[in-house]
Amino acid sequence: MGGTVDPLKPEGQVALSRNLQIATAAIDATGLCLFIALAILDQEDTFNAMLDMLGAFTGQNLTADDVMALGKKILDYERDFNNRAGFTSKQDRLPDFFKNEPLPPHNVTFEVTDEDLDQVFNW
Questions:
Q1: pTM for the full predicted model
Q2: What is the CATH classification number for the domain harbouring 32?
Q3: The domain containing residue 93 runs over which residues?
Q4: How many CA atoms lie less than 13 Å away from 37 in the CB half-sphere?
Q5: Domain annotation covers residue 31
Q6: For 48-82, how does the pLDDT look when each residue is reduced to its tens digit (9 = 90+)?
């Protein structure tokens, strides 16, 4: 999706996860199928067509920043709900085997630290 993050290394994963979650939340909220996310995020013309379509529907002149703000707002609502339900960063973790059991064929483990994971939703 236009990026250069190595999927086998922890560097860049937090920012990539953050941006994909923001975009996914926003696209999902529009009612569009999430399968279009790759085309929208990879092709500027397609993204602009989505902005035009949403603008025609809402009567607003939407920008990429507006779409990002929508995604962030949705994620903030979701996280607020989870916090009120008693979920903390302790529950917001992958099982230990992701960090301990190498996954074939590359035989790597999940190396993003908990401290880095806690930064995903900091905007």
A1: 0.88
A2: 1.10.599.10
A3: 13-117
A4: 18
A5: yes
A6: 999 999 999 999 999 999 999 999 999 999 999 99
